[in-house]
């Protein structure tokens, strides 16, 4: 009888964490941590623990009791604007949490997957492959890149995943992503301002989870830039979202990169080369219409929460 993988997912109620649970739960025993003033009910083979990533003693107990084979570390502050204004707490969570989990993986012989970001690039030399130079232009990107350096310097079996901009249904108590934010505002008849000169390759969260599952299942330990098929502006992404969901695309208005003065600088083009994703993980990047259609199909079944 094949033994089930014992998988620890930090940030288990986040956008990616939830998708990872769906991807792995049939083949794994999962411990998923989260941080928030709400309760999550355990599922078959999925145990949830409300555990702040700064609780080093709590995570040490999890490793002692659960003894994970693999840890997927998704828990972090994900807002560049929050990170820029709150550098100490961002450092404590994004770097301190990474240091804690890596140290425990070293001590227990667990494999480790670090979730990085397209924010490590400056946006001046797209498309980016895994070996291209990373030059962050904001504090969030700097911290993500420091996390990668930390992973590379340790003697553990590890992978670094750099998702392009993620979208999908989020937990109602967790932060929204740009697509769910747009859907909510457009349904309320509100105007949505979107960058017409910032380019990304939006990644449906389910495909990102599938990519990570293939890394684990097929032992593709290394660094992967994971993206969707289409290089589009944020404006094009949101207009397409409106069209797929039957909303008023006229409410989506194009604005320039400097429109939101309160926002920290963003790289203007973080599109990826996806050859490694396609050839090693055998994944064909999903287009935004296909990804958004998957969202629309699952909305009623999940009540918009998965």
Word description of this protein:
The strands form 4 sheets. Strands 3-2-1-4-5-6-11 form a 7-stranded parallel beta sheet, sandwiched between helices. The chain has a two-stranded parallel ribbon with strand order 7-10. It has helices spanning 15-24, 56-66, 80-85, 87-108, 139-152, 178-187, 205-217, 234-244, 275-280, 288-302; strands at residues 5-10, 28-34, 46-50, 70-73, 111-115, 158-163, 166-167, 192-195, 199-200, 203-204, 223-226, 232-233, 252-255. 45% of the residues are buried. Helices cover 39% and strands 17% of the residues. The chain has 10 helices and 13 strands. Strand 1, helix 1 and strand 2 form a beta-alpha-beta unit. The chain is globular, with a radius of gyration of 19 Å. The protein has one domain: NAD(P)-binding Rossmann-like Domain (Rossmann fold, 3-Layer(aba) Sandwich). The longest helix is centred in the N-terminal third of the chain and has 22 residues, at 87-108. The model has no long low-confidence stretch (mean pLDDT 94). By secondary structure, it is an alpha/beta fold.
Q: Which stretches are poorly predicted, pLDDT < 50 over at least 5 residues?
A: none
CATH superfamily: NAD(P)-binding Rossmann-like Domain
As for the number of domains, it is 1
Give the name of the CATH architecture.
3-Layer(aba) Sandwich
Secondary-structure-derived class: alpha/beta
Strand content: 15-25%
Helix content: 25-40%
CATH class label: Alpha Beta
Number of DSSP helical runs:
10
Tell me how many strands there are.
Answer: 13
Radius of gyration: 19 Å
Cα shape: globular
Q: Average the pLDDT over all residues and give the rounded result.
A: 94
Strand sequence of the main sheet, in spatial order? 3-2-1-4-5-6-11
CATH topology: Rossmann fold
Order of helices and strands: EHEEHEHHEHEEHEEEHEEHEHH
Question: How is the biggest beta sheet arranged?
Answer: 7 strands, parallel
Distance between the termini: 32 Å
């Amino acid at each position: 009888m094949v033994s089930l993988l014992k998988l620890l997912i930090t940030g288990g109620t986040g956008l990616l964490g939830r998708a990872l649970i769906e991807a792995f739960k049939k083949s794994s025993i999962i411990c998923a941590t989260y941080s928030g003033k709400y309760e999550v009910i355990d599922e078959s083979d999925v145990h949830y623990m409300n555990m702040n990533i700064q609780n080093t003693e709590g995570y040490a107990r999890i490793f002692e009791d659960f003894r994970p084979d693999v840890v997927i570390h998704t828990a972090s502050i994900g807002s560049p604007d929050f990170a820029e204004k709150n550098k100490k707490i961002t450092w404590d969570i994004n770097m301190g949490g990474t240091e804690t989990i890596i140290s425990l993986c070293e001590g227990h012989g667990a494999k480790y997957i670090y979730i990085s970001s397209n924010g490590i690039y400056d946006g001046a030399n797209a498309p980016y492959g895994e070996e291209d130079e990373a030059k962050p232009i904001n504090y969030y990107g700097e911290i993500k890149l420091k996390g990668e350096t930390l992973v590379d310097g340790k003697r553990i079996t590890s992978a670094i995943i750099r998702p392009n901009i993620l979208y999908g249904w989020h937990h109602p108590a967790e932060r929204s992503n740009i697509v769910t934010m747009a859907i909510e505002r457009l349904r309320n008849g509100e105007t949505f301002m979107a960058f017409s000169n910032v380019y990304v390759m939006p990644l449906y969260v389910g495909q990102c989870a599938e990519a990570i599952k293939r890394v684990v299942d097929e032992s593709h330990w290394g660094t992967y830039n994971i993206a969707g098929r289409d290089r589009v502006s944020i404006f094009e992404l949101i207009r397409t979202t409106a069209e797929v969901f039957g909303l008023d695309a006229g409410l989506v208005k194009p604005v320039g990169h400097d429109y939101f003065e309160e926002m920290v600088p963003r790289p203007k083009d973080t599109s990826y080369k996806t050859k490694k994703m396609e050839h090693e993980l055998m994944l064909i990047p999903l287009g935004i219409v296909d990804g958004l259609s998957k969202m629309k199909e699952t909305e009623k079944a999940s009540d918009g929460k998965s």
